[in-house]
């Protein structure tokens, strides 16, 4: 027997659409496609369908007959706003800092005054910092294209402005000071730079290793979720102690970069990043605990034994 599906506006309760003869095994994704036919302005990625006006969005893979509804199902629609693909967002977020930093590094005109146009710094650490910063963002761009598998295809368009302001703004602020003609190298000279470089490189390798391990957990095109465990790669052994070692390594990279450049804006960027990543890590940790009864009890969200 087929289902009748009525779709109401979650805010006004106005009836937007009535679908008769919907197959019992139809998924929410298929219902969204049917809804788009009558309301083309709301493409599927913009739609949030829920059983309760204030409830949680149903997943695209949810099947109609498995939902707690009768043969006449009422779904509530919310418009998520204009959407943009995650890949586009990440490419924009990461290409910006790469390009902006290089403008300061090459001292293009109008930044530091005419006599410094296209000159280069006499300090090795400045060139090293540029290599590290560029490497970090090139790595992120390549990971976005070839490594990451996104569980959601899109995000609200407004997020891109917020995220770009953060990444681009901090990149310009850091680059301005590090590439400044009056920049002074770190207090403990080469020793400090070498130690910091080691921290940076180890954390970048660690971060990449975790991304590869997470990628291997989720086969292409699927949305299965599993508990991540350490593999033969020693960088993944951090999984024994934290739920989101990719964030631990990411913060470590920026701490290394801050020590290397001894630059206050970098330290602030690390702090803001750490705060945000802790929020994400705690959320992920909570959802792991909720989803998996046998989740390893030793793990903390981001810092072993502490946080």
UniProtKB/TrEMBL annotation:
UniProt keyword list: Acetylation, Endoplasmic reticulum, Fatty acid biosynthesis, Fatty acid metabolism, Lipid biosynthesis, Lipid metabolism, Membrane, NADP, Oxidoreductase, Phosphoprotein, Sphingolipid metabolism, Transmembrane, Transmembrane helix
Pathway: Sphingolipid metabolism; Lipid metabolism; sphingolipid metabolism; Lipid metabolism; fatty acid biosynthesis
Any Pfam family matching the protein: TECR_N
Record-linked Gene3D superfamilies: 1.20.120.1630, Phosphatidylinositol 3-kinase Catalytic Subunit, Chain A, domain 1
Domain TECR-like N-terminal: 5-79
Role this protein plays: Involved in both the production of very long-chain fatty acids for sphingolipid synthesis and the degradation of the sphingosine moiety in sphingolipids through the sphingosine 1-phosphate metabolic pathway. Catalyzes the last of the four reactions of the long-chain fatty acids elongation cycle. This endoplasmic reticulum-bound enzymatic process, allows the addition of 2 carbons to the chain of long- and very long-chain fatty acids/VLCFAs per cycle.
Lineage: Eukaryota, Metazoa, Chordata, Craniata, Vertebrata
Molecular-function GO terms, alphabetical: very-long-chain enoyl-CoA reductase activity
InterPro entries assigned: 3-oxo-5_a-steroid_4-DH_C (IPR001104), SRD5A/TECR (IPR039357), TECR-like_N (IPR049127), Ubiquitin-like_domsf (IPR029071)
Membrane topology: Multi-pass membrane protein
Name of the protein in question: Very-long-chain enoyl-CoA reductase
Reaction catalysis annotation: (2E)-hexadecenoyl-CoA + NADPH + H(+) = hexadecanoyl-CoA + NADP(+); octadecanoyl-CoA + NADP(+) = (2E)-octadecenoyl-CoA + NADPH + H(+); a very-long-chain 2,3-saturated fatty acyl-CoA + NADP(+) = a very-long-chain (2E)-enoyl-CoA + NADPH + H(+); (2E,7Z,10Z,13Z,16Z)-docosapentaenoyl-CoA + NADPH + H(+) = (7Z,10Z,13Z,16Z)-docosatetraenoyl-CoA + NADP(+)
Transmembrane regions listed in the UniProt entry: 84-106, 195-214, 255-280
Localization per record: Endoplasmic reticulum membrane
Keyword field contains Membrane: yes
Cellular component GO terms, alphabetical: endoplasmic reticulum membrane
Enzyme Commission identifier(s): 1.3.1.93
Assigned protein family: Belongs to the steroid 5-alpha reductase family.
GO BP: any one term: very long-chain fatty acid biosynthetic process
UniProt domain 3-oxo-5-alpha-steroid 4-dehydrogenase C-terminal: residue ranges: 154-307
